[in-house]
Amino acid sequence: MGLRRIRRSYVETIQALLLVGAIAGAGAACGTGPDGTAAATRRDDADTQDEDVSDDDFAVDMGDDDPVSAPRGTSKPTAQAPRRDAGAAASDDDPDPGDAATPRRDAGGSEVAETDDAEPSIDGPAPTADSASKKGPYTVKTYTSGYRDGPRYADSTIHYPEGVAGKLPAVSVVPGFVSPQSSIKPWGPFLASHGIITMTIGTNSTSDQPPARAEALLDALETLRSENARAGSPLQGKVDTDRLGIMGWSMGGGGSLIAANKTPTLKAAISMCGWNPGGSYGQMKVPSLMFAATSDPLAGGQSQGFYRSIPEQTPKLLFEVQGGSHNIANNPSSLSGKIGLFGLSWLKLHLSGDRRYQEFLVTKPAGLATFQTNVK
Known about the structure:
Number of helices: 6
Largest sheet: 9 strands, mixed
Helix content: 10-25%
Low-confidence stretches: 1-121
Radius of gyration: 19 Å
Strand order of the largest sheet: 3-4-6-5-7-8-9-10-11
CATH class: Alpha Beta
Mean pLDDT: 78
CATH topology: Rossmann fold
Shape: globular
CATH architecture: 3-Layer(aba) Sandwich
Order of helices and strands: HEEEEEHEHEHEEHEHE
Number of domains: 1
């Protein structure tokens, strides 16, 4: 454990140095990421394989492994990571399927009449703060190829719950500066285990700026839309294309707010220690949650400005962790599960219209420096 802490301190030092260098050299940067690779090229492997989803997938990659020799499935960028194009089967996880679905509700909590094209998206027993902080009731499967190869993102993984009746909401998640897909991947199995299809992605270049990451997030959503229609897709007919959201870390967090600001049809956005100095989102109509931390030397203090810039009529929440680091929100298990509780609840409320989760969003948890919201 002592060695890991030393490594983590070393990683955070390198992150800060990378940010300073990027600002000086390019005029814009986002200091995140345990991997120092300058860029990640797209994949072209024909020999993809099943990927198991286990508890290890909920752990944030802190750069302790060799990014070149790490096992397949860690999604770390290498100097030449080829694009994938072959089909890959999915794998099982531990949880048992949940109870029968309850009726879908709109954003106001009213029950929506079921038709052939509108199936239940709210399911399972009433959530508790404890159940919404942990792995959910559904078996999670993943696949990494066979679907549309979007031009705006690189490697990717689609996580989905098995055996859930009806169409499900979906989100895309992007990492930050010099960081691989694996740095935000814990959100994939966590959200999917609670019934939210999740596509985690890497970027074409690890130095992509926030606007490019915004485009990557939206491109990934196009892929999820196409999966809903693709014959033979595990998600054929399962994606609720009217209930889509986005998430991003650091530079990706800035990208998520940029994308949401210009795409009012999205239902939810989450920024995790977002980096986009001077970013203003006065046109924002998408409900936006911003995770932040007081001991973040890279993006600290920026989310307060983001929050203020978002109109008051738009649902918004600022969640700043006292003493938290730049990667405090990369793993839903962080802060004793409070990160997962708020992230999941935000998506359940605004993607699924499930007001049962609203109660978890209105009380300030212990350990926060700032808690601001207009959600009542």
